[in-house]
Amino acid sequence: MAVAGLGMVGLLVWPRLRRARLWHATITPLASIIGSGFLILGPILTDRFGSYGIVAMVVLCAVGYAFGWAIRYNIARIGDDDGTKAGEGAPDDTAALRRVERISSWALAFAYVISVTYYLNLFGSFFARIFPHPSDSLSRIITTVIYGIILAAGLTRGFSLLERVEQISVSLQLATITALLAALCVYGVQEYSDGTLHYSSAVIGGLPALQLMFGFIITVQGFETSRYLRREYSAADRQHSMKMAQWISTAIYLVYAGLLAISFESGSFTLKETAIIDMMAKISAVLGPLLILAALAAQFSAAVADTGGSGGLVEELTEGRVSPKGAYVGLAVIGLGLTWSSSVFQIVSYASRAFALYYALQSGLAFLRARHTHDGSGQNTLRLAGFAALALLGLAAAVFGRSVEGG
């Protein structure tokens, strides 16, 4: 376990990798995807789907990659000017398409608000585990304090300092995940040798299972950040960075879900947002503290990034009428309201539905842009059908997604 974790650290600090342009472009979406779901998704899928959790994971990753396909098409159509101003769209977009693009940007800004709430509530839950008697109230108090710190930083131009933790956070996160997967592999091999591999049936199916999956799109979210990378990256760079981030995160998620499926049974642990700590304590006493440390770094840096992203989007969309500082205050007010009125799992569902709406709009835009240049070929017809199906899927997820407590 230690060797695997240290090996990953060595790889991440390897000068050739650190200087690689594609890797620099991949770090942000990769950190966002893994930070969004790794900590809570495994226990939830194992608890609800049993040994078939890996099947659910395949579906989630496939859906995420499909939505990424639509966004990558939009990146290609908009070209290298993408990201200069929110809501502008492609050079040849009609006025109607530009309006939809603008609505899509507003949907993303709102989704960022909910995702920050999710990240900071997860931060509060993991931080509370440091204390002898963690509770929901303690988690919410911690979340409130962190909101205050981030808001103060945003109002006093202190974000640049906070944003520096991203590279450290990514390295710590990937090293911890590598160590965790290595420990699960050793544990799985030992169980196989002893003939004690676990199997359990799903406790949910049909429409409730589908609605639950809709409510967890947030866990594979984050790839869309490739679209909004700095202008120094070309459209091709941003498309490749998204693909790379989704390939790497999918590989990590599938190995993770598969190992959990053979190591634990549905109902063998108490399902809560920090369940992964209790599950890993069975395998290694070292993993619990490591997971807490990695969780705090990952959730904090993700919250800072999305807070900054939301503020910047709102400023551009309102053409400066609302400053980033004003957006930060609004974000904090909404987030604190959700923090004290909803559970973490409910907030996960809200965030998933918000991003599903954004993905639906992006898929709809991809459909309209593809139709605008439709040449009658079979390939383009299939592309149109795919984009239309994704738009409908995103809308369905936005409307019918539910939290695990309702599953």
UniProtKB/TrEMBL annotation:
Keywords: Membrane, Transmembrane, Transmembrane helix. The chain crosses the membrane at residues 22-45, 51-71, 106-131, 137-156, 168-189, 201-223, 244-264, 284-305, 326-348, 382-401. It comes from the Bacteria. This is Uncharacterized protein.
